[in-house]
User: Which sequence fits this backbone?
């Protein structure tokens, strides 16, 4: 296993930000500035076309780190952020844009491309977790959560299905096609977000994927609005969800 | 309008509890012990077969009062708590128990009986709100919320449909039959709870009622589990929902 190497460190608003690489994979680890005993770790996967330090990632991280004292790690998915873009990535993104321009369904292309990315990303996430658990401020025995919507769910569902160290997960906003069979293997507590008026993913498809999880504790959050209109308060809800399961008080910005 | 009359006052855990009557209607008002400026009011309706001071009511009230500085009022529904039980109440409850014992569906009886109770209770709630808004610690202009599950939804949906002073509501766990047309008139923010494995109310029925609300902001919370297994964390979620809309910080017990 290649070692985790920190390449940069900065700090603001009570949060330490450390860039790292693990072999070819660039990542970021956000931690409480206060240091302290081993604390829970949230693995957060960015959405498609996005990257590890997108404001949606750093903004959520801030809530986990300063609200709960958790660590948050994000890595760039293959073809995203600081990763090289392959000819296959370019072709799939072009196919997606062409479908969009033609008013054709995006689902079949996104499902296929995300499944490909998940095959590459799942082993990277497991290696990242191996390496992060060697840090004394995280440790090998603390609780680990996973938080990923959209592409984050396409990668997270197959990851969580085979990764027993992950004890609670927030998923959502993806087609069921290739994920249902993996979801049936998942028994940890789940919070699942869908958009009630999603123009890309039908209600039936979202409900089918939620239904597939074998978890005895699972909660669906369906909000009015279109695909891109997931309310910001669902990030707070995710913080409360992990705080509840990992036994840390969460403060609400409400 | 008959005046609101306080009949008893006690205090514990930072919460003042005042029993009141408004004409024939007995109620309870829970308020912050600290007093202070006018604060939001949550009208909370108890479930069927239940009463105004059931632990589910006083427990939730504690969170609103000491967590957010809100007031919480509950009145006994006709045929419940300290209210007289009529021959009609007795007949309907007997019919419900008979259906239960025979393994027949409860829905048709509950829907019919709750619709009857709602006709009686809606004007009582409006008169209660009139009277409570005359108290200086509540006032006529502060935000008012409604929180009612099960029978609380059967009463709350027709109430909110005609009561413009109520600005946000938590509903859930009821059949759509007589409520859909009222729900279509409701445009305030809604949080709606359903049980994914409810043995009495089908998924389709719950989703139909949620779908009917005309609110641009509405959120469905569907939890795994049977009818009586609504998770306790949904009470916290309701607190966060009202705190978000009424601009008061909420502390989490998680």
Assistant:
């Amino acid at each position: 296993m290649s070692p985790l190497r920190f390449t940069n460190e900065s700090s603001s608003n009570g949060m330490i930000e450390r860039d790292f690489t693990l072999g070819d994979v660039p990542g970021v680890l956000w931690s409480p500035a206060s240091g302290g005993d081993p604390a829970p770790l949230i693995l957060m996967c960015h959405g498609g076309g996005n990257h590890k330090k997108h404001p949606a990632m750093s903004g959520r991280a801030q809530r986990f780190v300063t609200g709960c004292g958790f660590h948050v790690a994000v890595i760039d998915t293959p073809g995203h952020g600081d990763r090289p873009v392959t000819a296959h990535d370019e072709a799939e993104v072009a196919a997606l844009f062409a479908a969009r321009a033609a008013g054709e369904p995006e689902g079949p292309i996104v499902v296929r491309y995300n499944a490909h990315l998940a095959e590459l990303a799942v082993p990277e996430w497991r290696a990242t977790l191996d390496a992060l658990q060697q840090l004394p401020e995280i440790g090998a025995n603390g609780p680990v959560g996973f938080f990923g919507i959209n592409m984050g769910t396409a990668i997270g569902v197959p990851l969580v299905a085979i990764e027993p160290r992950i004890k609670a997960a927030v998923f959502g906003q993806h087609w069921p096609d290739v994920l249902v069979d993996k979801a049936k293997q998942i028994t940890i507590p789940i919070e699942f977000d869908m958009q009630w008026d999603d123009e890309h993913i039908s209600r039936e498809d979202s409900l089918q994927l939620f239904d597939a999880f074998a978890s005895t504790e699972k909660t669906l959050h369906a909000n009015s609005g279109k695909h891109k209109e997931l309310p910001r308060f669902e990030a707070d809800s995710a913080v409360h969800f992990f705080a509840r399961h990992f036994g840390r008080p969460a403060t609400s910005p409400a």
Remarks:
- The longest helix of chain B spans residues 107-132.
- Chain B has a mean pLDDT of 95.
